[in-house]
Amino acid sequence: MSRVIVSSANSFSLRVSEIAPDKSISHRSVMFAMLASGTSEISNFLRAEDTLNSLNIVKNLGAVIEDDGTIIKISSNGLKESSEILDCGNSGTGMRLFCGLLSSADGHFVLTGDEYLRRRPMKRVTLPLRDIGAKLDGRDGGELAPLSIRGASLKAFNYESKIASAQVKSAMILAALRADGVCTYVEPELSRDHTERMLMGMGANIKVDKLKTTITPMEGLLSPLIIKIPADPSSAFFFAVAASIVPNSNIVLEGITLNPTRIEAFKALERMGANITYEVVDNKYEPIGNISVKYAPLKAIVVDENISWLIDELPALSIAFACAQGESVVKNAQELRVKESDRISVVVAGLRACGIEVDEYEDGYKVVGGELKKGVVDSDGDHRIAMSFIIAGLKCGMEVNDLDCINTSFPNFFELLQKITKVELS
Ligand code: S3P
Fold this sequence. Notes:
The chain is of the alpha/beta class. The protein folds into two domains: 3-21 and 230-425, Alpha-beta prism (UDP-n-acetylglucosamine1-carboxyvinyl-transferase, Chain), CATH 3.65.10; 23-228, UDP-n-acetylglucosamine1-carboxyvinyl-transferase, Chain (Alpha-beta prism), CATH 3.65.10.10. The protein contains 13 helices and 24 strands. It has helices at 23-33, 49-60, 92-102, 123-131, 139-142, 166-176, 194-201, 233-245, 264-271, 314-322, 343-353, 383-396, 413-417, and strands spanning 3-6, 13-16, 39-43, 64-67, 71-75, 86-87, 108-112, 135-138, 144-150, 158-160, 183-186, 205-209, 212-216, 226-228, 250-257, 275-284, 286-294, 302-303, 327-330, 357-361, 364-368, 376-378, 398-401, 423-425. The protein has a four-stranded mixed sheet. Strands 2-15-17-16 form a four-stranded mixed sheet. Strands 4-5-3-14 form a four-stranded mixed sheet, covered by helices on one side. It is globular, with a radius of gyration of 21 Å. The termini are close together. Residues 24, 93, 165-167, 170, 191-192, 308, 311-312, 335 line the site of shikimate-3-phosphate.
């Protein structure tokens, strides 16, 4: 599957309960099960490439896994050295969190990934972990995978991170759980907090005070994780944008995590004028519920704060910018350049290919709302770019190339899209 031609859509009204399960929580669920005594039970696990790679890695690390296709049961007797190279595929979350988890494990481990992941910066985790005694290395002084890790004893730390990154925070929290004393981690802006919520739910002694997290190392093991993974707001957001740009449409997205660190993009869309409501129906580790989105004409906004809360959704939000009245601006978003692709330059190139006027900055871009035109866009191997421009096609038709990446996070994306428009895949 390397090319899709999407047709423009007529107004639609849908209720969707099949949005892909949350990727961040799925990765964490299988990793954290390795810290528990007894059997963890995970249902609605995301069966997509990124998270299946994490599941395979924990299997290589000695987890006993029973999977009946609905519930994955994981029991562990501690992390075991593996004779396999541990392949994280496309996933920065996988690689960075495994660095934290394995830094204190007994043995030698090698982490690698696909061509895109092997280009992404890893010093943000390898350097602070080395500072506390971890033995990690990689190309370019520990910046680039493949990475090698030899487990070591870790010293307690007080670390102040310059980047608001849940991946860095999570790697350091996982290291802290095995350090030789109480640790603190401070971040410049609150990043997504699934790690803290889930580990606290498993009985870890973690305290969060605004931007400061205090972690007391584990004594023994944690309680097993029993979790039904909610749907992923970052995946749901593509369909929220769809309903906001196709006149007279509406959609209800069910079973989504409503964790405040994850729904900022919906809030941004609301600021643009979309009609959005939230209904909490459950609360386990995080609030979970339904998001309803109704079409309304959109106006431009400036996005320059809480960037880490909408970092994964900015490509899709940019499609809404292109359909809005006025000039939308994204600033302080240099992190976008080191995601699965350089999302600033790829979004800018994609919008230009669709006839939209865009200015590029080092840390963001400006989009002048106008009329999207059918274009040909290449995803650059980035799932979120591919899905964003496919959604743009609902407005004007679109050809998007290089689509295998969609399997990293949202394998049933086209099945859902076909409820809205005609899709020709080749
Ligand atoms: C993630 C954190 C974010 C996000 C990524 C998933 C996570 O990355 O972009 O898709 O699960 O912790 P950063 O923490 O590097 O911003």
